[in-house]
Amino acid sequence: MKLYKLAVSLMIMIILSAGCSKFLDRPLENQAQAAKINYADLTLMYRPVAGVYRTASSGTFAKWISVAIRSVRGDEIEPGNDDAGQIAIHNFQNNVTVKSYWGINDMWISLYGVVLGANSALVELDEFAKNIPAGDAANTKLLAQYRAEVRFFRALGHYWISRYFGDIPMLGQESTDPAKLGNATKSKLEDIRKNIIEEMDFCIANLEDARPNQVAAPRQGAVTKYTALMLKAKVAMDMAGANNASPSWDVVLDATNQIINSQKFSLFGDYYQLFKKPGKLCDEAILEFQYSDFGTESGDIVTSGGSNETWGNFYLFQGPENTYGTPITGPGWMVPTQKAVDFLTARNDALRLKTAIQYCGVNGEPGTVTVTPDGDPVSGNGARKKYFNGKSYFPKSQMTPGRQDYGANNNVRVFRYAEVLLMNAEAKIRKGQNGDGPLNLVRGRVNLLPLTNATIQQLMDERRAELICEWWGERFNDLLRTDQAATVLPGFTKGRSEYLPIPQAQEDVNSNLK
C-alpha cells in the first residue's frame, strides 16, 4: 500500500481521537469530535492535546511490531518466531528482506503519525490562542503548557525515528498533511538531536513542576517538566557517546541533577512488582503509556493496540506460547536470550533474574509445567522456547475479576527514575567525579552490595542489568554509543549496521530518502 493511503488512514484515526477529553484517566471515551470546533470556547483547548496522548499510546509508540523490531537488535531478546524480517533484523542483515519488510514500514508510518498529529494539534492550539483575551494570564499560561506537552511528543517521535533510522526528515509545524512526508528531505542526526534539546528547553520552561502522578485528575500521568528533563538528558548522552570530554556530559549531569534535587521521585520499593499492577504510575514513573479495563468485568478496554484490540496488546504478544487453560498465554514473541539469563546469573542478580526471566515448562519441553512466582502454571511448547519476558508478565491474581485479557490493566513503562540515577552516575564518572551515590541507590533496591569508586564498565553493567529485556532498545543503543557493538553483537558491521534501512516503500514514494 502506498504511503499516502496509509498515512491518510492514520491521520483519520488521529483526528477522530482528538475528541477524547479525558484521555489520561479513561482513554477509551472516544467521543467523536465535532466537524467544526468552536475555538472561542477555551474550555475545549485541551482536546487536541488529548488526541496526541491517545495517538502516542494507542498503536504507535508501543505498537507490538515496533517493540519487536527495536528489541531484537540487542543480545537480550530474540524474535521467538520464524518471521524472516525479524530474524534478518536480529542478525543485522540490512538486505532486501529488511528493506522491504512490512514491519519497518509500519514502524516508520506509525512514528511519523505522532509527529504529524502533534503538528495538527499545534495548529489547532494556534486557533484557540487567537481567542485568548489580552491580559488573560491563566489561559495564556495554560496554552503554553499545552503547546509544550504536544511539542514533547513531537520531539519524542523524532528522537525514536532517528534512533532507529539515523538521518530522517524532521517535520515542523507547517507539516500537518501526510503528503508532506512524501517529499520531505532528510536532516542530519546531529541536527535532529540539537533540535530536540532546544525543544526540551521550551518544554522544561512551560510544563508543570510536578511528578506525573501528582498532576491533578483527570490528567494524572501527563508529561511534566521532569519528563522533558529526562529526554534532554538521554539525547545529550547519545550525543556524548563514549567521549568523556564532551560538553554534552555537562548537559546530562545538569538535567539529571535537577530531577534528583527536586526530591519528587523515588525508587519503587519492590522491583518485581514495579512492572505489574502495584507499580502503575508510581513515584518512579517519569513517563508511562496508560491502559485500562476500567476495573469492570466486561465492556470497554484499552490496550496498546487501540480500543478493544487483542493482538496489538503490548503484553499479549510477549505471552508464553501454548499455555492452555490460563490467561498467561500469547504467541511467544520476544524471547529472552540465554545470554541475558547467564549475565544475570553470573552477577548473582537474583531479583532482576526473577523479574525479567520467566520459564516455559522445564527447558521448554512439551508436556512439562513450571509455576511462576505468583502461582501461574506455564507449560512447555512445540518450539521449545525456554523463557518468556518476565517484565511483560501480568499475573492472573492481578487481573480484574471476570477479565481474561492478558496485561490489559497495566501500563507500559517508558522513562523511569532508576535510569535518571544511572545517567547521573555515568556523567559523574565520565567527568572524573564519584558516581557511587546514585549508582548504589539502584543496586540497593535489588539487594546488591554497594560499589566503591565504580568504573564506567561497572556502570554499564548496571545499566544493562537494570534495564534488561525492556523494550526501547537501550542495550543496543548503549553498545552503539560506547563503540562496543561490533565486538559484542554477532553479525554487526561498523558503518553498516547502526541503523535500520529506510523502508523501500518510503523510497519508492520519496526519492529524497535514498
Structural class assignment: mainly alpha
User: Could you spell the SSE succession in H and E letters?
Assistant: HHHEHHHHHHHHEEEEHHEEEEEHHHHHH
SS elements, strand count: 10
What does the overall shape look like?
A: globular
Mean pLDDT: 89
Radius of gyration: 22 Å
Name the helicity range: 40-55%
Q: What is the terminal separation in angstroms?
A: 19 Å
Summarize the biggest pleated sheet.
2 strands, antiparallel
Number of helices: 19
What is the topology, as strand order, of the major beta sheet?
Answer: 1-5
Q: Classify the beta-strand content into a percent band.
A: 5-15%
Low-confidence stretches: 1-35
What does this structure look like?
A two-stranded antiparallel sheet has the order 1-5. Strands 2-10 form a two-stranded antiparallel sheet. The protein has a two-stranded antiparallel ribbon with strand order 3-4. A hairpin with a 5-residue loop joins strand 7 and strand 8. The longest helix has 29 residues, at 137-165. It has 19 helices and ten strands. By secondary structure, it is mostly helical. The two termini are 19 Å apart. The relative contact order is 0.13. Helices cover 44% and strands 6% of the residues. It has helices at 3-17, 47-57, 64-71, 84-90, 96-99, 102-129, 137-165, 189-206, 225-240, 248-261, 271-274, 338-346, 350-356, 417-430, 436-445, 456-467, 474-481, 485-488, 504-509; strands spanning 77-78, 285-289, 302-303, 306-307, 335-336, 357-359, 369-371, 377-379, 387-389, 412-416.
